[in-house]
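The records we work with from here on pair a chain with its fold. A complete example follows; check for yourself that the lines match position by position.
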Amino acid sequence: MTKLPAPPKAPQRPYSYERHGHRVEDPWHWLRDPGYPTVEDKDVLAYLNEENGYFEAAMGPHRPLVDTLFREMKGRLKEDDKSVPQKDGAWLYWREFELGAQYRKWYRKPVGGGETQLILDEPKLAEGKEYFRLGAISVSPNGRYLAFAIDDNGSERFEARVRDLETGNMLPDVIPGTLSSLVWTSDNRGFLYGLANDNWRTDNARLHWLGDSIEKDVELFHEQDDGFRVGVGLTSSEKWITIATGDHVTSEVWLLPADNPLAEPKLVSARKPGREYDVDEHDGTLFIHTNDTSPNFRLAVASIGNPGDWRELIPASPHFYMTDVTNFKDFYVVEGREDGLDTIEIRDYATNTARRIPFPEESYVAGLDENPEYDVKKLRIGYESMVTPDTIYDYDVAAGTLEVLKVQEIPSGYDASRYMTERLHITARDGTDIPVSIVYGKDFKKDGSGLLHLYSYGAYGHAVPPGFSTNRLSLLDRGFAYAIAHIRGGDDLGQQWYLDGKLEKRTNSFNDFVDVAKGLIDLEYTSAGKISISGGSAGGELMGAVVNSDPALWGAVVAHVPFVDVLNTMLDETLPLTPGEWPEWGNPITDKAAFELIRSYSPYDQVKAQDYPPLLITGGLNDPRVTYWEPAKWTARLRATKTDGNILLLKTNMGAGHGGKSGRFESLEEDAEEMAFILWQLGVTD
């Protein structure tokens, strides 16, 4: 085997500052290009390219394994897959891949029969581009116009365009720099959108009339709070346009008549710190989903004429976490999780009685799928579990029956009976029971000899659902178990679960993850050093924290676009996300206690002279969420500090952002590289 070149070493350049009586040394501060978001600094680019070259050299001998994994993963994808057609007005809409295509085509045809019409050709739009992502897409109420937005560099600043579906021609209307939904007015003459400001924050809602120059666009709403973001939407009845503004803990909603968007916006209820709410509407009644009395949320109603007078319709429950409410013409749907398991309730307007849709497995993921129409007799439902592929149902509301419309097809074959899934509870160090979803082959031995991959996220109230993954099969079929730790910081068990993993309780998330790993060892699913782990973004922060605290547990670690330079980022209010992130992490600029807490766990700041496990770290040059220098600085400090000889790799996508490469096969290639790295480090050679 060819000997690896020496790993890159980023030079240290003195840089320090003082906050709250502490001096913070940051000798790799120079890796942040002062011209960001443009990155042209020659030293910065040279270092990133050198790391990429080292990554390629290290992975080179393992390319056959990468290729094998890629073929396996690709073989499980139906290349010419298509969605189930769904009725919206006079048309049936669907999207499909062609053989070999990286991106989808979008189609429709008249409900009463007629020719199929190609309405959006993603492969054509992506032609010649290193990166392509379709953002918002919206058909006008009369079906004539298609508004859509694209990002072709990973910066998440989308260019909105409009196509006339009758003529097939693109209209001259082009709006660069959007970061929002596109919501049509009911007269089909215009749409609402939001522009990203210089700090990659949507602080506005604007109205564009077709045919007008964007200079004539009307700003309908402007948010003054630097930590808030604005979004536009539409109620289910399509009578009202919603303008919602908020941060991670507080929200406020305004309403505009969809047929008169220039009317004075109607405030539902003024923002109150720590209160979140969202709004739907039925026959002049607002349905308000809010956490004002409980972190598990309740449902209140109010009249359009007096929207601030809330009357309780469904009280909060200690066991049921209400996550969403959707109104339809003859009933409404309440979604949530009861003791961590998804539920879908159909409720009658007259009596408010509830009927739950039953599902057969003990652990699963279920929720409303695409339901664009207000007046329906059937609901489109999505369902999956760790052993059951994605399944699309129609649920007949009157009959209470489920009809299978599509089961995810796996061309290379899949036999669910070969696998088992469990839902465990492992007690954390403070006595809290942490749910764990786990899947493994039926021949997996629980004698401590097994390999196990452990995944989690644990932030922002984002639950990790125990869903199906075709890529995961490549680990299971090589003898791994795969576990998801439902740690605090997510809202897997309700919003209180989220609150117990943020701000001053942030370290609960890290401790939960470590304690789950130790619990799985105690249960003899695996042993220390036989566990691979992965996480991205805030989950990458989790990876950084647990390799600092318990490095000997892990046999291989993959940290995707990891948020690891937490202290420096939270101290820099000029960065796009920082003001809006203070409710999540704390504000170390003004709060000494927050400064000291963040400093105590920030992975970059807590790197120490000790042995670390093998690490693969990724970043994106155009990433506006976790800036490229966070993984780069972390890698540099690890290289300069750690005492082991284990491999450490940094791969920076030079033409992509937070989500990595965009095409379905290009992203599979990255998945295959990650898995090959894990297998290599854990001694699995084929």
In short: The mean pLDDT is 95. Residues 42-59 form the longest helix (18 residues). The two ends are 17 Å apart (CA to CA).
